[in-house]
Specification:
The complex is a heterodimer of chains A (172) and B (159).
Chain A: E1 30-36, E2 42-47, H1 58-79, E3 90-92, E4 97-102, E5 108-113, H2 121-137, H3 151-163
Antiparallel strand pairs in A: 1-2, 1-5, 3-4, 4-5
Chain B: H1 4-18, H2 27-51, H3 62-78, E1 84-87, E2 92-97, H4 101-104, H5 121-133, E3 137-144, E4 150-157
Antiparallel strand pairs in B: 1-2, 2-4, 3-4
The chains are: A alpha+beta (172), B alpha+beta (159).
Chain lengths: 172, 159
């Protein structure tokens, strides 16, 4: 580890960028994932690394997330100084980044990750098309518009997220 | 070649429609649903049995007919071959599919296993109907032990 407290380091960590070497030491990871349908029903929620809860019941948390996304989307399109292309993509704070993907049918995939993670639209799209559509929409026993009960979906989603290059098993 | 998903969605709706709650006054309702679905499969199987065999391999023996089911019929319906065929050489055959497409989306393991058999009714009829066109009378039943694998048991009838 580099020390910046005035002492001359005896060795340096080689990183790609000379600006922020400490970024290489931050493990990148996925915190959690929400899946909503067009009516705001939370179809699925999974958590991998979440150190702090919202402090409100889960149902309220889902409503809060959905409501906020709904408002941000319409705000972004209204205030955009140019013609909208993809719309709202992500926001970040000093600790985490929220990624958003919406399909033409109104299914919304929301993933919270570490700051080091770049655009992951293709990942969220894969979650929609290869997991949600294949295992939930095409499952005769999964009624649409309700929370997903399928164990297969849950476990495949879990394996997929854990296999992502930016997922680290060590908690950030 | 039509997208396989079209048939899958149609099949899902057929099962849902026939097992809709108000058509279920006790076990009498369930049996009727099964036989309706099996009947549908039977007639489709009969028609496919006429239409599918392109090369006129004369289906002389039972085993040829079973091979036709496992290879040609399965490939046309489900875009794959049957994974296993066993027989006791006395008219009973067990066809094993380890990744049956109509069950693939439901799960792997034990969730949904009670609901799974109704999704096999149509296919049982399909196998029976195809064999009928080829000149063999049979009785077909199906069982599921662990999704998405299933077995179809074909017992040839001596007429």
């Amino acid at each position: 580890m580099l020390c910046w407290c005035g002492l001359r380091p005896s060795w340096t960590l080689e990183t790609g960028s000379s600006l922020s070497p400490s970024l290489a030491a931050i493990p990148m990871t996925v915190h959690n994932l929400y899946l909503f349908d067009r009516n705001g029903v939370c179809l699925h929620y999974s958590e991998w690394h979440r150190k702090k809860q919202a402090g409100i019941p889960k149902e309220e948390e889902y409503k809060l997330m959905y409501g906020m996304l709904f408002s941000i989307r319409s705000f972004v399109s209204k205030m955009s100084p140019l013609d909208m292309k993809d719309g709202f993509l992500s926001f970040q704070t000093s600790r985490y980044k929220l990624h958003y993907y919406e399909t033409p049918t109104g299914i919304k995939v929301v993933m919270n990750t570490d700051l080091g993670v770049g655009p992951i639209r293709d990942v969220l799209h894969h979650i929609y098309s290869a997991l949600y559509v294949e295992l939930v929409v095409k499952n005769p026993l999964c009624p649409m518009g309700q929370t997903v009960q399928s164990e297969l979906f849950r476990s495949r989603l879990d394996s997929y997220v854990r296999s992502l290059p930016f997922f680290s098993a060590r908690a950030g | 070649m039509a997208d396989a998903v079209l048939f899958e969605f149609l099949h899902t709706e057929m099962v849902a429609e026939l097992w809709a709650p108000d058509a279920d006054p006790g076990s009498g309702g369930k049996k009727k649903s099964w036989s309706v679905l099996e009947g549908l499969g039977f007639r489709v199987g009969q028609a496919l049995g006429e239409r599918l065999p392109r090369e006129t391999l004369a289906v002389r023996e039972e085993l040829d007919a079973l091979k036709f089911l496992c290879k040609d019929l399965w490939a046309a319906m489900f875009q794959k071959h049957m994974d296993g065929l066993r027989t006791n050489h006395q008219g009973t055959y067990v066809l094993q599919d380890n990744n049956f497409p109509l069950l693939l989306t439901m799960g792997s393991g034990s969730q949904y296993i009670e609901e799974a058999p109704k999704f096999l009714a149509f296919t049982c009829g399909l196998l029976c109907g195809a064999l009928h066109t080829l000149g063999f009378r049979s009785l077909v039943t199906a069982s599921v032990t662990a999704l998405p694998a299933c077995k179809f048991q074909v017992v040839m009838q001596k007429s």
